[in-house]
């Protein structure tokens, strides 16, 4: 009764299932009911039978390969290297942790050296005499209000006596009657230079 | 202590006679953990015994992984140097063989990584890995038989070639399982992968390997 029930419970297996789970099957790590499914599939599938035969044979061939042999100098070379291993911790200490400390120390030292003139040497303070710059007085031609044309003047506010008196001067008269070229000597020169350059 | 270790190193190449031979025989009967403990306790011949236990196996593993015998020997030496240097840090609740294989595996992976920095090698590796990972799992019956006279030699070279053709991450798992007989759990620990990844890679590697050498087996 039990075997019959077990046979009924075997799930049919495809070739893909077989190949996908073949490693577990070959290494004996599948459950008992799955083993029966594998074997049932093998009975019906010639391709999977061949697959199993080839993989098993390939494994045998692989294990039958001659092992590579060590050369004669393997022992002496290893001995030589191991002899120096005991010395390596000191070297390791010199090459692994020490450089960081050394580099940091060097950096601090260099920084201190670079800043030392600023830190320890006092620069003497020199009091210089004040420099007074005097520019020559530039007298710009001033056009008096009275010189403005009638349209430019405000008609609402007539000139007061003070204003009239302010301009009662020889300079005003000179300005009033001077030609335009003399009124604006600088502007004239610039214009002249400009025309020369233009040519 | 340092002097004792120097003497211990000398035993790697100079077997000794008489009492030394007896002592060596006694060490051979011990487990790896016991030999490690003996070495840590100052037994001058214990480390030499560890070297004798693992040198050939490690060379086989590293050579099959990187495909270069001379470089493999250098990496095995480096493995022993690291073991010697860090033996006091070894967690003795774990298997020594797993620890030493992990060191060797990491060195082999570094070697492969350094090689892969060559752009041409990198391209070839990517293409090979792509092919292996995306090839459909199918099986075709082919018939090909080489001359019987050279069959054995040809088969051996073909098998070696097939191992080299596997993608690197498949090859390490494959060699550890098929040639070194490691369990899934040990392989997972050595390669720092989870069990599912180990199974998947092993399945792919077996499939690819068998496909390559199938024509030779008929």
Give the helix tally of chain A: 12
Radius of gyration of chain B: 20 Å
Strand content of chain A: under 5%
Based on secondary structure, the structural category of chain B is mainly alpha
Beta-strand level of the residues of chain B, as a percent range? under 5%
Report helical residue fraction of chain B: over 70%
Overall shape of chain B: it is globular
User: What's the helix-strand series of chain A?
Assistant: HHHHHHHHHHHH
Count of individual beta strands of chain B: 0
Q: How many helices of chain B in DSSP terms?
A: 11
User: N-to-C terminal Cα separation of chain A, in Å?
Assistant: 127 Å
Task: Describe the protein in words.
- The complex is a heterodimer of chains A (199) and B (218).
- Chain A is mostly helical and 199 residues long.
- Chain A contains 12 helices and no strands.
- The longest helix of chain A is centred in the middle third of the chain and has 24 residues.
- Chain A is elongated.
- Chain B has 11 helices and no strands.
- By secondary structure, chain B is mainly alpha-helical.
- Chain B is globular and about 55 Å long.
- The interface between A and B is large, with 43 and 45 residues.
Write the SSE topology.
The complex is a heterodimer of chains A (199) and B (218).
Chain A: H1 2-9, H2 15-20, H3 22-26, H4 32-44, H5 46-63, H6 74-83, H7 88-95, H8 97-120, H9 161-166, H10 170-177, H11 180-183, H12 185-198
Chain B: H1 2-13, H2 19-28, H3 32-40, H4 46-66, H5 69-86, H6 96-116, H7 119-134, H8 151-165, H9 168-179, H10 184-191, H11 195-217
Helix pairs in contact in B: 1-4, 3-4, 4-5, 4-6, 4-9, 5-6, 6-10, 8-11, 9-11, 10-11
């Amino acid at each position: 009764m039990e075997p019959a029930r077990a046979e009924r419970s075997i799930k049919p297996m495809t070739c893909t299932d077989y190949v996908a789970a073949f490693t577990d099957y070959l290494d004996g790590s599948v459950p008992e009911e799955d083993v029966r499914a594998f074997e049932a599939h093998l009975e019906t599938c010639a391709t999977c039978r061949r697959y199993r035969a080839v993989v098993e044979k390939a494994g045998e061939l692989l294990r039958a390969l001659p092992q590579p042999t060590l050369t004669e100098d393997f022992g002496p070379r290893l001995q030589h290297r191991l002899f120096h291993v005991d010395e390596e911790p000191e070297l390791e200490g010199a090459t692994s942790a020490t450089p960081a400390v050394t580099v940091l120390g060097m950096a601090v030292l260099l920084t201190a050296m670079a800043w030392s003139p600023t830190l320890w040497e006092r620069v003497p303070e020199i009091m210089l005499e004040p420099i007074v710059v005097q520019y020559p007085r530039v007298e710009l031609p001033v056009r008096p209000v009275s010189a403005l044309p009638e349209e430019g003047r405000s008609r609402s506010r007539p000139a007061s006596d003070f204003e009239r008196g302010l301009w009662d001067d020889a300079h005003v008269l000179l300005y009033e009657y001077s030609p335009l070229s003399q009124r604006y000597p600088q502007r004239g020169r610039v214009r002249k230079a400009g025309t020369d350059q233009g040519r | 202590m340092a002097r004792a270790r120097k003497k211990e190193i000398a035993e790697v190449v100079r077997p000794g006679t008489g009492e030394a031979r007896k002592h060596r025989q006694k060490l051979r009967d011990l487990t790896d953990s016991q030999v490690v403990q003996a070495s840590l306790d100052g037994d001058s011949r214990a480390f030499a015994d560890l070297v004798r236990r693992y040198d050939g196996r490690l060379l086989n593993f590293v050579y099959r992984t990187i495909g270069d015998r001379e470089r493999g020997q250098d990496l095995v030496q480096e493995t022993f140097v690291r073991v010697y240097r860090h033996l006091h840090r070894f967690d003795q609740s774990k298997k020594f063989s797993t620890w030493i294989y992990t060191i060797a595996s990491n060195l082999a992976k570094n070697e492969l990584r350094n090689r892969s920095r060559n752009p041409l090698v990198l391209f070839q590796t990517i293409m090979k890995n792509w092919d292996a990972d995306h090839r459909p799992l199918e099986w075709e019956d082919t018939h090909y038989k080489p001359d019987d006279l050279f069959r054995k030699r040809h088969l051996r070279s073909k098998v070696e070639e097939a191992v080299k053709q596997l993608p690197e991450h498949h090859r390490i798992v494959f060699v550890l399982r098929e040639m070194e007989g490691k369990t899934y759990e040990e392989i997972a620990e050595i390669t720092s992968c989870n069990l599912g990844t180990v199974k998947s890679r092993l399945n792919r590697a077996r499939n690819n390997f068998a496909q390559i050498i199938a024509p030779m087996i008929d």
